[in-house]
């Protein structure tokens, strides 16, 4: 269920999504409020779980993680034990930066960030040692055309 947010809440969230490192004074000025009421709203948004955490966004390529693969996984196993092993395998691999369970012909899609094709092959070989997978299709992203962590707030 979506939280009830007013216009000031949305301005605060939009400003935080753009740059959460700003001082409270800068943030209050940017949203047209004063420090104490803005701070109280941020605290309430955190308590409500709307603001989950604040992080630094890193440049993958600057860190040598030049290859982004989208991995489409189909499995013939859907029992709880297999799913737990699969989830553990994903959680234990920092290369997996996103994982989604899908509706349709593909069961899961993973976003995997690695240095190169060899590093991806190593990841793939390790994954299939841990869990039985019916079919894996990997797609190398040639160009990231849009990437954002900002959610639409309208």
UniProtKB/TrEMBL annotation:
Q: What SUPFAM superfamilies does this protein's entry cite? A: Dimeric alpha+beta barrel (SSF54909), Winged helix' DNA-binding domain (SSF46785)
In terms of PROSITE patterns, this protein maps to: HTH_ASNC_2
* Keyword line: DNA-binding, Transcription, Transcription regulation
What domain of life does the UniProt record list for this protein's source?
Bacteria
Q: Which GO terms describe its biological process?
A: regulation of DNA-templated transcription; response to amino acid
Q: Which GO terms describe its molecular function?
A: sequence-specific DNA binding
Pfam families for this protein: AsnC_trans_reg, HTH_AsnC-type
Q: Which GO terms describe its cellular component?
A: cytosol
Q: Which positions fall inside the HTH asnC-type domain?
A: 5-66
**CDD domains reported for this sequence:** HTH_ARSR (cd00090)
Gene3D superfamilies (UniProt xref):
3.30.70.920, Winged helix-like DNA-binding domain superfamily/Winged helix DNA-binding domain
The answer to whether keyword Transcription regulation applies is yes
Listed PANTHER family: DNA-BINDING TRANSCRIPTIONAL ACTIVATOR DECR, LEUCINE-RESPONSIVE REGULATORY PROTEIN
Q: What is this protein called?
A: AsnC family transcriptional regulator
Q: Which organism is it from?
A: Algicella marina
């Amino acid at each position: 269920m979506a939280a009830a947010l007013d216009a000031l809440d949305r301005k605060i969230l939009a400003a935080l999504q753009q740059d959460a490192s700003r001082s409270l004074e800068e943030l209050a000025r940017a949203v047209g409020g004063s420090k104490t009421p803005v701070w109280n709203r941020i605290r309430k948004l955190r308590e409500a779980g709307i603001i989950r955490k604040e992080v630094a966004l890193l440049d993958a390529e600057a860190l040598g993680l030049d290859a982004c693969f989208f991995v489409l996984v189909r499995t013939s196993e859907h029992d709880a034990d297999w799913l737990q092993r699969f989830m553990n395998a994903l959680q234990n691999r920092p290369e997996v930066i996103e994982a989604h369970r899908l509706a349709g012909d593909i069961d899961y899609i993973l976003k995997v960030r690695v240095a190169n094709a060899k590093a991806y092959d190593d990841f793939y070989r390790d994954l299939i040692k841990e869990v039985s997978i019916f079919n894996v299709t990997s797609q190398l992203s040639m160009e990231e055309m849009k990437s954002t962590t900002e959610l639409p707030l309208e």
